[in-house]
Amino acid sequence: MTTTRALSAGALLLLGAMFAPAQAQDTSRDIKIVLPSAVDVVEPCHMNSTGYIGLVLKENVVETLLKLDPKTSKPLPNLATEWNQVNPTTWRIKLREGVKFHDGTPFDADAVVTALKRQFVPELACRDKIRSFGSITIQPKAIDKDTVEIVTSEPMPLLPLSLAQTGMTAPSTSMKEAERHPIGTGPYVFTSWDPAQSLVLTRFDGYWGKKPEVAKATYVWRSEPALRASMVAVGEADIALQLAVQDATNKDTDIGYLNADTSRVRIFMDKPPLNDKRVREAMNLAIDRSAFIGTIVSPLSVPASQYMLPSVNGYNPDLKPWPYDPEKAKQLIEEARKDGVPVDTEIELYGSEFMQANLSEMLETLVQYWQEVGLNVKINMVDKIQHSAMRRKPYPADRPPSMVHELHDNTAGDAFYTMIVYYTSDGGLSNISNPELDKLLKEASLATGEKRTKLFQEANRMIQQDIIPDVMLYHMVSYIRVGKRVHYEPNFTTQGQLELSAITFK
Amino acid sequence: MNGYVTKRMLHSLISMMGLIILVFFLSRLTGNPSDLYLPIDTPADVRAAFSQAHGFDDPMIVQFGHFLANLVHLDFGSSMRLERPALNLVLEAFPVSLTLAVLAMALALVIAIVAGSLAARSPNGVLDRFINVISLCGASVPNFWLALVSVLVFAVWMRWLPTSGMGGPEYWVLPVIVLAVRPCGLLAQVVRGSMISALSSAYVKTARAKGVSQRVIVFVHALRNAMLPIITVAGDQASGMINGAVVVEVIFGLPGIGRLMMESIQYRDFAVIQAGVILTACAIFLLNIAIDLAYALLDPRIKHA
User: Fold this and answer.
1) Cβ contact A40–B81 (<8 Å)
2) Which of A38, B143, B265, B275 could cross-link to B86 by cystine, CB 3.0-4.6 Å?
3) CB proximity A176 to B under 8 Å
4) pTM of the model
């Protein structure tokens, strides 16, 4: 009997311990951030191009020479204090003094040269280098302890913006293989990483800048948005990213914000009826963009007129989204039909669910609108690999008249990063071959200051009004849940960069 | 017995070779994974260099030859996504899935045997109908829905348990229960049917005539004879769990084989897919051997030559 009682008491104690209220977040300066997917790679030279590497590392562990102002997209000083273009292919950068890497190595011109050269090591196949420098190569050189000169193989007026994307890693960083323990100059030290479960950063006491409030940040990942929201609701986490719109129900904690993504349908203009401008214009006029807002897309989404956010240099504020005018759309289609354009030909619209929430519903509604004005569009949902193959050159030669839904983010701050790839004849993702536009974009790419802005704005006008290569849809919205202990204001860079120093305690 | 195990191993080896060939070729027919690893605007030469570095530009049969040659040395290659040996990743994930499967299966079996036996004692009685309805609900409920609702109730509303993740015993409670519900419902139905049949057999009537207690009749005499179909169904359910309880692992953030395989398939991480398939196939082979041995133990009439 005694044994039975002891066992019962033990079992009760165990149950009591198990069912005690789950441990809530404590009152320390440690926080937990829950991400939608695993941080499975931490190589800093992929940080602007792959998963959540940048969100964890950028400006927390690894800093850049310059930093973009999220409001204006202009470069600001960071590890560099001054920069100037000596001639079209040469830039001179003055470095901040008194900065040290987490391993104690001084941050100087030699370290910067090593970090820049690392971006171009073939074995590392740095994805940021592809994005920021393309085919351009650079020759960095230390002029003195605090000055670096960078010579580019072609004129590169946007080098400051590229440097705002390039992480300065310690000289000890591997030059042969992907780094698994990145060392930088940032306010946080990369402390531990279990790719299956979590990643931890702790505050760097030797940081050159202002001491941030967060002492330790633990990143975990859960793919289910409702679960991420629940973790913040019960105090297991302080910030949850990428909530689904239906889970963002708490006005006190849930914040919607314009992310960098713009959504559109790209029209391949090589085959009839899509090679007729009237048909493409009709496709734009046939859609009531306001009808999607608050139903299929977030109530905070903004109808787009250009493939970039208004904060990007070169955005044309005079352009408005196409109005909803189904009568004019029908008239244009009829005119095209009378001129012998085969407007009844079936058009394939490719999409992939991974691109955005509620995409099937969005595409089905678009198709309905187009059917109402007399067009015959069929949806073809494909997986990510097939979708990418549809979007990039070389395009499949045997495809029917086609369109593809896609998203694009320009977080680098200048229209160049959108226009060259998407709108020039040689652009890897372009559906346009227009010598006049090519000339304009080449001139804009080499120009600086106000002239550059005006030229890109004119290019945006020409694209929207004269060529109509797409059906521009929305500037997209993300939702973040911020717990009651902390304060954080997201902005369009948050998906790729979440600075822990911007998090404060209430 | 040794002859039996050797024969089963040979059969399994043939099945595994077929499986390896299928997985190798089918997974590669889904397209070039460079699109998943490189930015969409990557120049063609960089894309080609990526394919070359990972051997995707070789003819498929050459790639298969390299794979088999390495497999002989138990070298499954490296994960493209995680840049680590594929076998290590699978071996690290496997214990999580195994723990989850063992706990969930043990819970499901205990509850199903007790509930099914009680229901079989008085077929069509109140208790039987109640257990029948509950077990049918359990067998039909989708894991995905149950997992989210259980988090909402026990973690968010009642605050009894953590929502997800790894840690102390409390972190296992919800995943194990959620994973156990479906097999438990199914097994309770099987136990009930099997026990009704056993309880109406001649040897039970004899035992009753001899005055043996109802508890001993149900749980000793009848249950042992009713166990064969239960083991068959339980084995099938356990195989599925060892394969990875994908939904439960993904929702509760458990780093098991199911989650690893799902992510590897999404990223066409061929080395990990292959290592995962081979390891789980081995585990299922061992499980089948154990089930066969259990048959022999429960029913001495079954002999493995």
Assistant:
1) yes
2) B275
3) no
4) 0.85
